[in-house]
Design brief:
The structure is a homodimer of 244-residue chains. With 244 residues, chain A is mainly alpha-helical. Helices cover 59% and strands 0% of the residues of chain A. The first copy, chain A, binds a DNA duplex (19 and 19 nucleotides) through helix 3.
DNA sequence: ACCTGAACACCGTTCAAGT
DNA sequence: ACCTGAACACCGTTCAAGT
C-alpha cells in the first residue's frame, strides 16, 4: 500500500530520480494496454511506484500529460522522404499508410487525437512535408491551404473514424440490440441498405458494432485513398497522371 | 440545498413526473451551453431540480445519456430529398452542408461523435440516403461499401476535425507558446510552411490554435467537397459531369 | 530539486427506503 | 412507478512539509 519505487516496473525502472520521459512512456503504455479511460493520475502513479502527486512535478496536470502521450505516439510515424521521392500522388499514398500504421499501433489514442486541437504540437515536419508535396503538385496560395486541409482533414478524419471507441464490454445490450435493429431493417423504408446488408453490416461507418481496431477496413481505406488522389488530381489538372 | 422541482427550469418545466425526453433535452442544452465536460449527472440534476439519482431511472447511466444526447443533436440534421432530387454530386454537396450546419449548431457534441462508435444508432435514414445516391451514381456491391465509407469517413471526419475542442481557456500558455513556435519556424527546415505562413496560420489543421467553432473553415470545406465529388466521379467514370 | 502525505472538492453509481 | 437520501469507491489537484 505504501508505494515507494522499486517494485514498480520490473527491470526497466532504474534507480535515480523519476524523469518526465519515464512518466510519459509509462502513460502511453497504460493507454495502449487498457485504454484512455484507464489513464488516471493515481493508477499511473501506482504503476510507476510513486505517489500520485509526484507526477505533477514532471508532467504537469493530466491534460498536458495526455498531450505529451499523444506527441509520443505521433512520433512513431515515419514520414516518407520528400526530396527525390516518388511523384506526389504516390507520396500521399505512402503517407496515408504510414499514418494508418501509426494509429493502428496506438488505437486507444485515436479518440483523443480526434477530439482535441491541442495535440497537434510538433507535427510541423508532417505539415511541411504535405505542403511541399502539394506545392510540387501545383497548389499555391489559398488553394494550397485548401488542398492541405483536404488531405489532413480527410485522411486523419477517416482514420479516427475507423478507430473509434467501442462501447464498454459491459454493454452487450447495445451490441445485440444494434444487430437486431440492423437485421430488422424495413426494406421498404431503406431498400438500398436492406439489399446490400451483407457487404455493409459491421463493415461500414454507422452500420458496424466493432471498431477498426478489431476489424480493419483495409479495402475501404484503399478506395478512399484513390478518391482523394483522383480528386486532387482533378483540381490541378493532372487527371491522366494517377490512373483509376 | 434541498432540491425539489419547481425552481429548476423556469416556465418550461411543467409539473408532473419527469420524462426521459426532458432529461435528454436538458442535457443537450447543458452541453451546448457549457461543453461536454460540464455535463455531470449531479450538475444536470441540480439544473433540472431533482436529485442526481433520479436521472438514472429515466436515462440510464451517463454513457447511455450521452448517446441519447448525440442522437437528439443528430436528429437536427435535415436530409436533402433523394427521389426526384438533384444529380448525385449536387446531392452530396447538399448533404455535406446539412451535416456541417447541424454540427456547427452543436459544436460541443462533435468531439463525442468523433470518438465513439456507439452514437451511430438511428442514423439509418442517413445511411440509406447516401447509399441510394451512390447506387444511383453507379456503385454496386463492394465498391458501394467503399464509396459509402469514403463519403461518410471523409465528410464527418473532416467536420469533426474542424470542430475539435480547444484547450481550456486557463491554458493561455499553450496558445501563446504555440503561436511563438509557429512564428519561429526555421525556414531552412520547413521552407514551404514558412513561406506560406500567412495563409496557413490559424487556418489550417495542426497549424491553428482556435477551433472551427470560432473560426469556421468555409473555403477549405468547399474545396474538400470539390475533391470528394471529383474523386468519386473519377471512380465511376463521370469525370466530365461534375465540373472543376 | 524532488517527493511524500494529507486534504479538498468533486465525480458516477448502487441501494435501501420512502410515497 | 417514481424519487429521495445516504453511502461507496473513485477521481484531479493543491499545498504544506519533508529531504
Amino acid at each position: 500500500m505504501t508505494s515507494p519505487r522499486g517494485n514498480g516496473r520490473g527491470a526497466s525502472s532504474q534507480r535515480g530520480p523519476l524523469t518526465r520521459r519515464e512518466v510519459v512512456t509509462a502513460a502511453l503504455a497504460l493507454v495502449d494496454a487498457d485504454g484512455v479511460d484507464a489513464l488516471t493520475m493515481r493508477r499511473l502513479a501506482e504503476r510507476i511506484g510513486v505517489y500520485p502527486t509526484a507526477l505533477y512535478w514532471h508532467a504537469g496536470n493530466k491534460a498536458s500529460l495526455l498531450a505529451a502521450v499523444c506527441e509520443l505516439a505521433h512520433s512513431d510515424m515515419e514520414l516518407p522522404p520528400v526530396v527525390g521521392g516518388p511523384p506526389w500522388h504516390e507520396w500521399l499514398r505512402s503517407m496515408g499508410h504510414a499514418a494508418r500504421a501509426m494509429l493502428h499501433k496506438h488505437p486507444n489514442i485515436a479518440p483523443v487525437l480526434a477530439s482535441q486541437l491541442q495535440v497537434t504540437t510538433s507535427s510541423f515536419p508532417l505539415s511541411e512535408s504535405v505542403l511541399a508535396v502539394l506545392h510540387g503538385a501545383g497548389f499555391e496560395g489559398e488553394r494550397l491551404t485548401g488542398a492541405y486541409n483536404t488531405v489532413i482533414g480527410f485522411l486523419f478524419g477517416w482514420l479516427f473514424g475507423e478507430l473509434a471507441s467501442e462501447p464498454p464490454e459491459a454493454d452487450e445490450d447495445w451490441t445485440s440490440g444494434f444487430q437486431r435493429k440492423l437485421r430488422d431493417i424495413d426494406s421498404d423504408a431503406a431498400p438500398t441498405l436492406a439489399a446490400n446488408l451483407p457487404v455493409l453490416a459491421n463493415q461500414a461507418f454507422m452500420l458496424r458494432w466493432e471498431s477498426g481496431r478489431r476489424r480493419p477496413m483495409d479495402r475501404s481505406f484503399e478506395m478512399a485513398l484513390d478518391v482523394l488522389v483522383a480528386g486532387l488530381a482533378a483540381q490541378v489538372g493532372h487527371e491522366q497522371a494517377v490512373g483509376g
